[in-house]
Amino acid sequence: MVTALRLVAALAVLCYASVLDWKTRKVSNTLWIALSALGLLLVPVQLSIDDEPMKYGLVVAPILVILADVYWDIRGDSRLARMVPAVKYGLAIALVVILGYLWVDGSYFQHLLAVPVFMMVVVVMYMLDLVRGGADAKALMALAILFPFYPTIGSIPFLRPESAALEVVFPFAFNVLVNAAIIVALFPIGYFLMNITAKEFEIPFGLLGYKRDVDSLKGEHVWLMERIEDGDLKRFIRPRRSEDLEAEAAKLKATGHNRVWVTPQIPLIIPMTASVALTSVIGNILLDLFRL
User: Fold this and answer.
1) In terms of residue numbers, what domain contains 26?
2) Does an H or E element contain 211, and which?
3) What is the pLDDT of residue 124?
4) Torsion on CA atoms 32, 155, 176, 93, rounded to nearest 10
5) Is residue 200 a contact partner of residue 211, using CB atoms and an 8 Å limit?
6) CB 9 within 8 A of CB 146
7) In sequence order, what are the residues at sequence separation of 6 or more whose Cβ sits closer than 8 angstroms to the Cβ of residue 183?
8) In this structure, are 28 and 84 located in the same domain?
9) Angle CA(16)–CA(179)–CA(219) in degrees, nearest 5?
């Protein structure tokens, strides 16, 4: 029942978030906070059901420290404001090390401790621009908190890892990210076919996006791969995370560039939702591939 509750809650929130992501590319933090809160509340419940020591619940401490940085910004340019994030993550790492020293020998606790570790990995991926959307990163963290163990109901999922250690190394949320990335990796095929049909294919841009008239960019959820800088047209394989699309489009038009390469702001929450359903039913395809 607890596993079913986790799955129903995750899919309900993700489906609603997918609609918002498709329409606006913005998802309220309230959704991810609610999922994270549910996951934290279920920690003592799961410990009680599995007859495990309640002291294992201390794993929520580093999780809360990380969430405090993600959702509670201290604004300002003061030295203190700049130091706060480093202090928070330093504390989170210290707590993980201490808890690991105490109980990491137990396979059960390893699953729990993998949650804050994966959350910090997501933060690093976001800082390195490997996960571009803030909502995407927060969704992954919420899923990590909600699913410290792979969801199993009867014979589902069909594919299961051979050892608990593999589940710790490749937690459920990580597998969701990988499967979502695989779905997104298929997009260049669509771009290729679209650009070949339009006779506008050009490497590498034709595999990363498509051309649009600058007059039609208003309201579009895209990033420019061409911009005017210092009076010259410059192209970028990795566009900026944020930009004033209308202002940049006006610069392009003023310099006679009326049709430019753009790459869509992919609503990753949608493939992530499909990935949660796929992983819950089929299982960890990634681990099965490793076995092969």
Assistant:
1) 2-149
2) strand 210-213
3) 92
4) 70
5) yes
6) yes
7) 271, 274, 275
8) yes
9) 45
20-29 as b/e: b if 16+ CB within 10 A: bbeeebebee
Report, as ranges of residue numbers, the positions in the chain whose pLDDT lies below 50.
Answer: 292
Rounded distance between C-alpha atoms, residue 226 and residue 236, angstroms: 6
Cβ–Cβ < 8 Å for 214, 257: yes
Tokens of 29: 């933090």
**Distance separating alpha carbons of residues 265 and 134, to the nearest angstrom:** 13
Tell me what pLDDT residue 289 has: 59
Residue 256 is predicted with a pLDDT of: 84
Same domain, 20 and 118: yes
Whether residue 287 is contained in a domain is answered as: no
If asked whether residues 225 and 113 sit together in one domain, one would say no
Q: Are residues 41 and 110 in the same domain?
A: yes
Region class of 56: left (phi > 0), else alpha (psi between -120 and 50), else beta? alpha
DSSP β-bridge partners for residue 9: none
Q: Quick one: 127 and 230 in the same domain?
A: no
Determine the pLDDT at residue 120. Answer: 95
The position carrying tokens 């937690």 is: 171
pLDDT recorded at residue 196: 93
Residue 255 lies in a domain: yes
Q: What is d(CA 265, CA 258) in angstroms, rounded to the nearest whole number?
A: 21
Pairing label, strands 210-213, 259-264 = antiparallel
Whether residues 24 and 116 fall in one domain:
yes
Residue type, 204: P
Query: Cα separation of 174 and 287, whole Å?
Result: 12
- Quick one: how far is CA 140 from the chain centroid? 4
